[in-house]
């Protein structure tokens, strides 16, 4: 049967005291979409509120995968994202959370999102996130009472990267927050492609890492194709 991936996106479009415009960072959804499409997967979208999500980094539209996403079914379908509360996430083989600054606004404490990630992880489906997307993993507690990220080899947008990008806009530094909950954080050079799979958890550091996250998710989903 065809594998099913649910891409869960933020609905935020501004962040911070200066009302910086934001959204989902285009390549962080477009590049994984391209990989999942090539793998023949069914790709669906859910957003936290069910409202149309926003895209950031449209200046990168000339990249082939980004352009295909914008002009093909990717963005068309993402605009029709259903409300997360109305989705039976148990039907999916994997969930994926792209970044952009938007998830830092509405995903740190979203109770249903935390429940969905906990249940998905504990049934051994694949959980993937890239850049600021791993904020979705923050504050997720497993059935044993431990934080999901505790002891996990993982990465996200780093404090060093944030200092040069949006430190004045974000409510906290994601690397620091994940580390405080016990993550074994691995940082590569700023803006370099870097993704990590630890069991059924796959994370990536920044926009350049989004393709690698999808590739690693596919490898976990289909180990025979390694």
TrEMBL record:
The keyword Magnesium does not apply. The keyword Kinase does not apply. GO terms for cellular component: cytoplasm. Keywords: Glutamine amidotransferase, Lyase, Stress response, Transferase. Residues 28-218 form the DJ-1/PfpI domain. It holds the Pfam family DJ-1_PfpI. One of its GO terms (biological process) is methylglyoxal catabolic process to D-lactate via S-lactoyl-glutathione. GO terms for molecular function: glyoxalase III activity; transferase activity. InterPro entries: Class_I_gatase-like, DJ-1/PfpI, Prot/Nucl_acid_deglycase. Belongs to the peptidase C56 family. HSP31-like subfamily. This is Type 1 glutamine amidotransferase domain-containing protein. The lineage of its organism: Bacteria, Pseudomonadati, Bacteroidota, Flavobacteriia, Flavobacteriales.
């Amino acid at each position: 049967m065809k594998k099913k991936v649910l891409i869960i996106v933020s609905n935020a479009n501004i962040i911070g005291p200066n009302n910086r415009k934001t959204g989902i960072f285009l390549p962080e959804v477009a590049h994984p979409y391209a990989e999942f499409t090539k793998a023949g997967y069914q790709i669906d979208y859910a957003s936290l509120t069910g409202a149309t999500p926003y895209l950031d980094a449209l200046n990168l539209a000339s990249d082939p995968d980004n352009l295909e996403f914008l002009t093909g079914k990717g963005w068309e379908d993402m605009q029709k994202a259903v409300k997360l509360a109305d989705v039976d996430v148990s039907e999916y083989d994997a969930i994926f959370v792209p970044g952009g600054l938007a998830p830092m606004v509405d995903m740190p404490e979203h109770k249903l999102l935390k429940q969905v990630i906990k249940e998905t992880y504990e049934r051994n489906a694949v959980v993937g996130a890239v850049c600021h997307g791993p904020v979705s993993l923050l504050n997720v507690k497993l059935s044993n009472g431990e934080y999901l990220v505790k002891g996990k080899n993982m990465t996200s947008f780093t404090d060093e990267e944030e200092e040069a990008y949006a430190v004045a806009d974000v409510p906290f530094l994601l690397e620091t927050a994940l580390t405080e909950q016990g993550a074994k954080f691995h940082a590569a050079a700023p803006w370099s492609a870097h993704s990590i799979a630890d069991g059924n958890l796959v994370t990536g550091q920044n926009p350049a890492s989004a393709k690698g996250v999808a590739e690693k998710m596919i490898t976990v989903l289909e180990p025979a194709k390694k």
